[in-house]
Amino acid sequence: MVDMSTVIGDIRLPSPVMTASGTAGHGAELARYVPLDSLGAVVVKSLSIMPWEGNPGPRVVELPGGMMNSVGLQGPGVAGWIASELPALRDSGARVVASIWGRTVEEYRQAAQALVEVQDDLLAVEINVSCPNIEDRRKMFAHSCDAVAGVIVATEDLEVPRWAKLSPNVSDIAEIAGAAGDAGASAVTLTNTLLGLVLDPVTGRPVLGGGGGGVSGPAMRPVALRAVFDVAAARPDLPIVGVGGIAHAEDAVQYLRAGAAAVQVGTATFADPRSTARIATDLQTWCRNAGIERVTDLIGTAHS
Ligand SMILES: Cc1cc2nc3c(=O)[nH]c(=O)nc-3n(C[C@H](O)[C@H](O)[C@H](O)COP(=O)(O)O)c2cc1C
User: Fold this and answer.
1) Does 62 fall in a domain?
2) Spatial distance between the Cα atoms of 266 and 156, rounded to a whole number of angstroms
3) Is residue 206 assigned to a domain?
4) 290 C-alpha to center of ligand 1: Å?
5) Residue 287, pLDDT score
6) How many angstroms separate the alpha carbon of residue 271 from the centre of ligand 1?
7) For residue 216, which atom of ligand 1 is closest to its CA?
8) Which helix (H) or strand (E) holds 96?
9) What is the spatial distance between Cα 106 and Cα 31, in angstroms, rounded to a whole number?
10) What tens digit of pLDDT does each residue of 179-209 get?
11) What is the CATH number of the domain that holds 114?
């Protein structure tokens, strides 16, 4: 029997496979396909301090190697989520990772404070810094070491571990990850979607209602995998959760070998809502066939 448990900082998970934020609903929507307590964790869609409408449709477009979305972080806000979604997640036995976003450092602070009352129900909080900072000409927080550090410090009222979810659209991801870790993040989640644009060739207008969007799925896997590899090399002390284009156990193996302690599955869930469970089962089989007794034995082996 392969030991599938893993550790992210101080947290032990029974499985290294989790859902990715924004791709498995706000609460227990996937429960009818996957026993949520069998997953490493359920990472819920990013929440802001206030309810948020998101972008006009169309919000998703299929691409040859995945998809592009411009959902625009639609959500019920932290208080709405605590009232309407958290109870079902709690009942499912899932290990819950909440995710927050903001347009200013103050909004991140407020979202984090609003989660403090339920933090006993949370395994961790992912801080999605891949959002425009309206106080800095709408530059993305995740594109600046100082802005990332400022957000992480602003969320320190939370006593549960905070993971910084970073953008791949930067020239030196190791520097940004290091800034997040130095500011108090217990782990980094690598990566969010790649910035993209699809135009209608006839009208010349963006296909998505929000204009550009975020590219996800297998096409971005080498990009996110490289980010994991580079951060693991630069900061071996900083736990990494890898995400981007994972659709099969072999993809997860690459992330673990590159240095991730766990992985998240996003776009694959849209094609098959059982993807997370299937990948976890196949990963166990893969390890057994390869003579690997503990899944953690794979972590970082690409560096040796
Ligand atoms: C429709 C959609 C919505 C997403 N919403 C969020 C979100 O709310 N917060 C976040 O941190 N990431 C969000 N993401 C990014 C994913 O969590 C993940 O980082 C990215 O899609 C790469 O993984 P994948 O290729 O497995 O999808 C979203 C992705 C998609 C496709």
Assistant:
1) no
2) 27
3) no
4) 31
5) 98
6) 14
7) 25
8) strand 96-100
9) 34
10) 999 999 999 999 999 999 999 999 999 999 9
11) 3.20.20.70
**Residue (of 186, 159, 164) closest to 176 by Cα position:** 164
15 lines ligand 1 (CB under 6 A): no
The atom of ligand 1 lying closest to the CA of 75 is: 8
Question: Is residue 25 classed exposed, middle or buried when 0-12, 13-18 and 19+ CB atoms within 10 A define those classes?
Answer: middle
- Enter the pTM of the model: 0.98
Residue 132 in any domain: the answer is yes
Q: Tell whether ligand 1 has an atom less than 6 A from the beta carbon of residue 55.
A: no
Parallel, antiparallel, or unpaired for β 66-69 and 139-140? unpaired
Mean per-residue pLDDT over the chain, rounded: 97
Domain of 125?
6-54+74-196+219-299
Q: Specify the residue with its C-alpha closest to ligand 1, atom 3.
A: 22
Residue 1 in domain: no
Give the tokens for residue 151.
């957000």
Q: What is the pLDDT of residue 136?
A: 87
Ligand 1 pocket check for 208: Cβ under 6 Å: no
Q: How far is the CA of 59 from the centre of ligand 1 (A)?
A: 13
SS3 category, 132: strand
For the segment 123-182, what is each residue's pLDDT rounded down to a tens digit? 999 999 998 888 888 889 999 999 999 999 999 999 999 999 999 999 999 999 999 999
Please give the tally of structural domains in the chain.
Answer: 1
pLDDT tens digits for 26-85? 999 999 999 999 999 999 999 999 999 999 999 999 999 999 999 999 999 999 999 999
